[in-house]
Amino acid sequence: MTINTKNKFFWSTIQKNLFLLLFLIAFAGCQKKDSFQTAAFQTSTGWGYTISTGNKIIIKQTIIPVISEVKSFSSEEDALKVAQLVATKLNQNISPRVSKNDLILLKIKI
User: Fold this and answer.
1) Is residue 14 part of a domain?
2) Residue 1 and residue 32: Cα distance in Å, rounded?
3) In whole angstroms, what separates CA 10 from the centre of its chain?
4) Over the stretch 69-100, which tens digit does the pLDDT of each residue have?
5) In Å, how far are 34, 36, 83, 95, 97 from 54, measured between CA atoms?
6) Cβ neighbours around 107 below 10 Å, total
7) Is residue 46 included in any domain, yes or no?
8) Residue 98's Cα: distance from chain center in Å?
9) What pLDDT, on the 0 to 100 scale, is given for residue 99?
10) DSSP H or E stretch at residue 6
11) Is the separation of the CB atoms in 35 and 54 below 8 Å?
């Protein structure tokens, strides 16, 4: 009596490889990607920032939030610091609200 073990080996190898492939596809699909891009732009009185996803701008901020004056950011770096903070909050599904304390911690010139 002869048993064909090659056929069983072939199918078990295919099943293992198929399972591994499906696992890798599922793992790659579940990883969260940072999908927000930040950019600074110059205004007539200073700097502002935009936050976009894909080709769509979702936030365009031309003034410093939470201060009583209507004033733009004094430098491109300041605008980008706040934009990055807001983008990080959006990525974490937190409200993108900026507080005075946030501005102080980021050392934004008011």
Assistant:
1) no
2) 55
3) 44
4) 999 999 999 999 999 999 999 999 999 999 99
5) 11, 8, 16, 20, 22
6) 9
7) yes
8) 17
9) 94
10) helix 5-30
11) yes
72 touches 47 (CB < 8 A): yes
Count of domains forming the chain = 1
Would the pLDDT of 34 be above 60? Answer: no
How far apart are the C-alpha atoms of 99 and 96, rounded to whole Å? 10
* One-letter identity of residue 11: W
Q: Domain span at residue 90?
A: 37-105
pLDDT tens profile 50-73: 999 988 999 999 999 999 999 999
Count of positions (residues) in the chain: 110
Residue 67 domain-assigned (yes or no):
yes
How much is the pTM?
0.69
Tokens representing residue 42 in the block: 């110059």
On whether the CB atoms of residues 80 and 40 are closer than 8 A, the answer is yes
Task: Specify if 92 maps to a domain.
Answer: yes
